[in-house]
Amino acid sequence: MFLPKYPHNPTPPPAHIHTPADPAPVHRTVPALHVSPAVVAAVVVGGVVLTALLAAVAVSAISVAIAAVVLRSLLREHSRR
Questions:
Q1: Statement: residue 20 has pLDDT above 90
Q2: Cα gap 51→75, rounded to integer Å
Q3: Would you say residue 54 lies in a domain?
Q4: How many other C-beta atoms lie within 10 A of the C-beta of residue 30?
Q5: Structure confidence by residue, pLDDT tens digits, 26-69
Q6: N or C end of the chain: smaller count of CB under 10 Å?
Q7: CA separation for the pair 16, 13 (Å, rounded)
Q8: How far apart are CA 56 and CA 50, in angstroms?
Q9: What gap in Å lies between CA 58 and CA 6, rounded to an integer?
Q10: Which sign does the torsion angle of CA 65, 67, 70, 74 carry?
Q11: End-to-end distance of the chain based on CA atoms, in angstroms?
Q12: Where in the sequence is the domain holding 63, given as residue range(s)?
């Protein structure tokens, strides 16, 4: 009742011939990046300048903090007198 019914004379499936839709992709090499020494020097100099500016800001902030602590101490001593 639930068994499949097969044909009496089975025919072989048609042969599949593989034909690619597109030709094989062409592998292209990426050209090497030629960076001129001037560009490298500019990046290095820019990095040095930015680092120097960051260091200057940090030293200035520390100096202002120390000056604030000293002034606070001096004003506290002056108000006690």
A1: no
A2: 36
A3: yes
A4: 5
A5: 777 877 778 899 999 999 999 999 999 999 999 999 999 999 99
A6: N
A7: 9
A8: 10
A9: 87
A10: negative
A11: 114
A12: 40-81
